[in-house]
Design goal:
Blueprint lengths: L5 E5 L3 H12 L5 E5 L31 H6 L2 E4 L4 E5 L4 E4 L4 E3 L2 E4 L3 E3 L12 E2 L4 H8 L7 E5 L3 H12 L3 E6 L6 H4 L1 H13 L3 E4 L3 E7 L2 E7 L4 E3 L2 E4 L3 E3 L2 H5 L8 E3 L10 E3 L4 E5 L4 E3 L4 H15 L11 E6 L2 E7 L8 E7 L4 E7 L5 E7 L5 H10 L5 H4 L10
Parallel strand pairs: 1-2, 1-7, 2-3, 7-19, 9-16, 10-11, 10-16, 11-12, 18-20
Antiparallel strand pairs: 4-5, 5-6, 8-17, 13-14, 14-15, 20-21, 22-23, 23-26, 24-25, 25-26
The structure holds flavin-adenine dinucleotide (FAD).
The site of flavin-adenine dinucleotide has 36 residues, from helix 1, helix 8 and strand 22.
Length: 409
């Protein structure tokens, strides 16, 4: 194989930044161009709905590397610049400033864009979404004692914003279409833990409701109107109804796309010189034996090293199990594995479910652990990982017995 001399990374989020880092760590000495639509160096988003949103940590703590790192490592960051077209035959990326960059290998890390609600009034000035640091700043501006905040969507983002807003003294209402928040991800028993947590912190959690429209006055939402006409008066709205992979560029380039960019075990797309990492990668996972696209921090953090090893000519597969974490009030949790609805048979719990200190296990019909979540219990992920990756049946009764070490399951 000819030596790789030009690598272009499109997307300046965590996955893009980690790709640049992995290239230098793995000894690549050629040119690196990192194209970042945002006017920032790559940064991590989890604090935007947690410590940063709460005003407890500065933005610098979320930034992956300072400017000096990119200078010292000779990574050219094109900030506030979008890649507009990819010519795979000519091995060239065109940017919105007219520059055309040649590449030997291209890494797509364009991440996700928020889903917008096409509802009457949703374009009002006090309706917010949360993806960028600027979004987080705007939401923090509506925090304050007694100010009414309506959150549409009881997913991770909605719940974390609710927790930060309650701690800031806001009156918070969550509108959720399902019967419980997070029920699609966690199932009813564990989702109920989160519903109770928020109720205990004074959130008005309205489940099984449908939002009909926003009532506006002078360009601002003054109430959220439900199907049936009930109005919830509000000072601001945050919408957190999920994200979609940013695949426009990949589609234009003619890559195989289906719920993200289709990549093999090595994160290589249908074009052998183009890789995809992070939120946009629909990965053929060699351990899970199925395709997964994971919209979480750890994937953006860890996939780049495998993609880089492969693009530099190695024989690397990405084998890490999906992992994520969340923090809400005094509850911290980590989730490892993959258990979409229909993939598991039941959930068993070790520990104190009502006391919110437990580990939950999702079991399939052969009593294999497909996923686990530790809530206010720490340092267990590394012990649980091999149980999931091993894909062997376990004794369900022993799982619930706290006296049995995980290694003996
Ligand atoms: C508020 C918030 C809180 C979160 N909290 C958690 C958490 O607690 N735990 C967890 O596991 N995960 C969390 N996540 C998810 C996690 O942040 C994402 O999975 C991660 O950001 C994905 O990284 P990425 O680099 O793949 O994509 P992104 O972070 O979306 O970055 C992609 C970047 O590419 C840019 N881009 C797109 N198209 C182009 C183009 N054509 N040209 C140039 N640039 C382009 C985008 O502007 C963006 O800056 C959270 C996300 C958000 C928004």
């Amino acid at each position: 194989m000819e030596a790789v001399q030009n690598v272009v990374i499109v997307g300046g989020g965590l996955a893009g930044g980690k790709t640049a880092e992995a290239l230098r760590e793995q000894g690549y000495a050629g040119r690196i161009d990192l194209i970042a639509a945002e006017d920032h160096l790559p940064y991590e988003r989890p604090p935007l709905s947690k410590q940063y949103l709460a005003g407890k940590t500065p933005f610098e703590e979320a930034v992956l590397h300072p400017e000096s790192w990119y200078r010292e490592n000779q990574v050219t960051v094109h900030r506030a610049t979008r890649a507009t077209t990819i010519d795979t035959a000519g091995h060239r990326v065109t940017l919105d400033d007219g520059t055309a960059l040649p590449y030997d290998k291209l890494v797509l890390a364009t991440g996700s864009t928020v889903r917008r609600l096409p509802l009457e009034g949703a374009d009002a000035s006090n309706v917010h979404y949360l993806r960028t640091v600027e979004d987080s700043d705007r939401i923090r501006d509506v925090f304050g004692e007694g100010r009414r905040l309506t959150i549409v969507g009881g997913g991770w983002i909605g719940l974390e914003v609710a927790a930060a807003a309650r701690e800031a003294g806001n009156t918070v209402t969550i509108l959720e279409a399902a019967e419980l928040p997070l029920v699609g991800v966690l199932g009813a028993d564990i989702a109920a833990v989160f519903a109770e947590l928020h109720a205990a912190h004074g959130v008005d959690l309205r489940t099984g409701v449908r939002l009909a429209r926003f009532v506006t006055s002078e360009g601002r939402v003054v109430a959220a109107e439900l199907d049936g006409g009930e109005r919830i008066e509000t000072d601001a709205v945050v919408i957190g109804v999920g994200v979609a992979p940013a695949v426009g560029l990949a589609e234009q380039a003619g890559l195989a796309v289906d719920n993200g960019v289709l990549v093999d075990a090595s994160l290589r797309s249908s074009d052998p010189d183009v890789y995809a990492v992070g939120d946009i990668a629909n990965h053929d996972h060699p351990v899970l034996g199925r395709r997964v696209r994971v919209e979480h921090w750890a994937t953006a953090l860890n996939q780049p090293a495998a993609a880089v090893a492969a693009l530099l000519g190695g024989d690397a597969w990405y084998t890490e199990l999906p992992y994520f974490f969340s923090d809400q009030y005094e509850l911290g949790c980590e989730y490892i594995g993959y258990a979409p609805p229909g993939s598991y048979d039941r959930v068993v719990v070790r520990g104190d479910l009502p006391g919110r200190e437990f580990v939950a296990f999702w079991l399939d019909d052969a009593d294999r652990i497909v996923a686990a979540m530790n809530v206010n219990v720490w340092d267990v992920v590394d012990e649980i990982k091999p149980l999931i990756a091993g894909r062997k049946s376990v004794d369900a009764d022993r799982i619930t017995d706290p006296g049995v070490p995980y290694a003996q399951l």
